[in-house]
Write a structure and sequence with these properties.
This protein is mostly helical. It has 3 domains: about 70 residues, no CATH class; about 140 residues, no CATH class; about 120 residues, no CATH class. About 60% of the residues lie in helices and about 5% in strands. The chain has 15 helices and 4 strands. Strand 3 and strand 4 form a beta hairpin. Helix 4 crosses helix 13 and helix 6 crosses helix 8. The radius of gyration is 26 Å and the shape is elongated. The termini are far apart. The model has no long low-confidence stretch (mean pLDDT about 85).
Length: about 350
């Protein structure tokens, strides 16, 4: 029941949870039989109870905004190739860009083959949970090849479960090494056998750490904190619209403005639902209703904060560009923060 509750709630955070929950459900039905019922009950409750208020208030919008729009978010985009995704998910990207990807792919496939071979050769000592871990990893990794969009941080989703499976394989190899050591070396030397693999793993980590840190530095070198720039230009309590609400959060400018101020929570999600997740483009064409919404919001707001000039997540049609240029002027600019004030 608890596992089902957690799995269902995970689905409310990210629909990808189904890639983990489904093999767990299958394993539960095969191995546990009747105990699948409380798991399914918890699963339904964990998902439906948090979603129920939204389903009651706005069922169509909830399904469209949360499920359909997310499923279609890859439309109009060219996704990363399979070899690049393998390089990112395996962590081998940090040992060089995976564009010359054949060595990366071959090495990753050799590691996967090694883990599979361990499970097969030690099948008499494997437990149902070990095979379940393998099923989860297989489905999660395959699932990450489906979205058109793929970002580096997606790899953390697969890494969590790959690490479990690698731990299973290491444990099986360590147990086999201990038995062989007892048979050929005696009891006392055999006590050292389980330490061989952890020590080897530690040496690999120490050797690879500089590469990983270098990759992390490159990944975050563009990161900035525009909070001061925005806070200095936008007074507290002002009515602000933005293409990225995080900018207002770091600037402590998410307040309680007047009743006429737009309640814009998720511009990226709005772009997906109102423009069908089409590739952002300057000048359109855009659905007229989408342009009209932003036109009204720009008229109501006191300030606009954009992460980039001419942000793609606003439907900057020719008429909206004219409106913006006629009513706003830029008062501050910094890394990933451009602040405009309404010239009332």
């Amino acid at each position: 029941m608890l596992a089902g509750l957690l799995g269902g709630f995970a689905g409310t955070v990210k629909v990808w949870a189904i890639l983990v929950v489904f093999p767990l459900l299958v394993a539960c039905m095969i191995v546990r039989g009747r105990r699948a019922t409380p798991f399914i009950t918890g699963l339904a409750a964990g998902f439906l109870v948090p979603c129920l208020p939204f389903l009651i208030v706005a069922p169509k919008d909830f399904v469209r905004d949360v499920l359909v729009a997310q499923a279609n978010r890859s439309s109009g985009r060219v996704g990363l190739g399979a070899s690049t995704r393998i390089g990112i998910m395996s962590g081998l990207k940090h040992f060089g860009e995976p564009s010359p990807s054949l060595p990366v792919v071959v090495f990753a496939l050799l590691l996967a083959t090694g883990v599979a071979a361990v499970l097969v050769l030690a099948r008499q000592r494997t437990r149902a949970s070990d095979w379940t871990a393998a099923g989860v990893v297989a489905l999660v990794v395959l699932g990450l090849f489906l979205p058109g969009q793929f970002y580096d941080h997606y790899a953390y989703f697969s890494a969590a479960f790959i690490s479990v499976l690698v731990g299973v394989a290491v444990g099986l190899v360590s147990a086999s090494a201990t038995r062989l050591a007892k048979r050929h070396l005696g009891q006392r030397p055999a006590r050292l056998a389980p330490a061989v693999l952890p020590l080897t793993a530690a040496m690999i980590v120490v050797w690879s750490l500089p590469h990983g840190l270098g990759g992390a530095r490159r990944y975050f070198e563009d990161a900035t904190d525009p909070g001061r720039t925005i806070a200095a230009a936008v007074p507290s309590g002002a009515c602000v619209v933005t293409d990225d609400p995080i900018l207002l959060i770091v600037a402590n400018r998410v307040g309680q403005p007047g009743p006429g101020c737009p309640r814009l929570v998720d511009p990226f999600g709005l772009w997906m639902t109102e423009d069908d997740g089409a590739l952002p483009h300057l000048g359109g064409p855009f659905p007229q209703a989408f342009v009209d919404k932003w036109s009204a919001w720009l008229e109501q707001a006191d300030y606009v904060v954009l992460s980039v000039e001419g942000s793609d997540y606003l439907p900057f049609s020719p008429e909206l560009i004219r409106q913006f240029n006629a009513t706003y002027r830029r008062v501050a600019a910094g890394d990933h923060a451009y602040v405009y004030v309404h010239m009332r």
